[in-house]
Amino acid sequence: MFKFVFHLILLSSITRSGQSQYRDQHWRIQERTVEFNLDENSPIGTELGSVAAPVNGPKSISHPAGALTTVSELHYKLGAPSNLFAVNEQTGVLSTRSTIDAELLCLKAREQDVAEEYPGKS
Predict the structure, then answer these.
(1) How far apart are CA 72 and CA 16, in angstroms?
(2) Domain residues for 61?
(3) Cα of 45 vs its chain's centroid, Å
(4) Rounded Cα distance, 79 and 97, in Å
(5) Which among 24, 75, 81, 116 is least surrounded, fewest beta carbons within 10 Å?
(6) Residue 19 has pLDDT above 50, yes or no
(7) Would residue 52 count as lying in a domain?
(8) Could you report how far apart the first and last alpha carbons of the chain are, in Å?
(9) What is the rounded CA–CA span in Å between residue 36 and residue 50?
(10) pTM of the full predicted structure?
């Protein structure tokens, strides 16, 4: 059994509601850490759990210009491309994109360490 720890940065878009054809966008950032356990060699598509969290704070806030501002949508995505994991953009469910093999991951980590320690010698 593996334990994976993910540090999440939730970036939520808050858009001004009203009659204007232009939308004022403001961003709110929240950080948290989640842990998931996964059996080695679990099938591709195995769900680890959800990274979705309720947005802390009000669903609507006062805009500096006086208009009401509401949270319009949340979308989830990984901060960097991953061959191992995928996240459902709408639901926040995290799943595997490939089979997780401990020996292969450790081998890749060792190769990367050697390449960083001895550049040009691979």
Answers:
(1) 9
(2) 2-117
(3) 17
(4) 15
(5) 81
(6) no
(7) yes
(8) 31
(9) 9
(10) 0.59
3-state secondary structure of 116: helix
pLDDT tens-place string over residues 20-78: 444 555 555 667 788 888 888 889 999 999 887 655 544 554 555 555 555 556 677 77
The torsion region of residue 91 among left (phi > 0), alpha (psi -120 to 50) and beta comes to alpha
> Residue 122 domain-assigned?
no
The residues, ordered by sequence, that sit 6+ positions from 50 with a Cβ below 8 Å of its Cβ are: 91, 92, 93, 94
> Distance between CA 110 and CA 120 in Å, rounded?
15
pLDDT in tens, 64-118: 555 555 555 667 777 778 888 898 988 889 999 998 887 777 776 666 666 677 7
Task: Put the strands of the sheet holding 25-38 in their side by side order.
Answer: 25-38, 2-16, 68-73, 60-62
| Per-residue tokens: 69 | 């501002």
> Is 57 part of any domain?
yes
In the chain, how many domains are there? 1
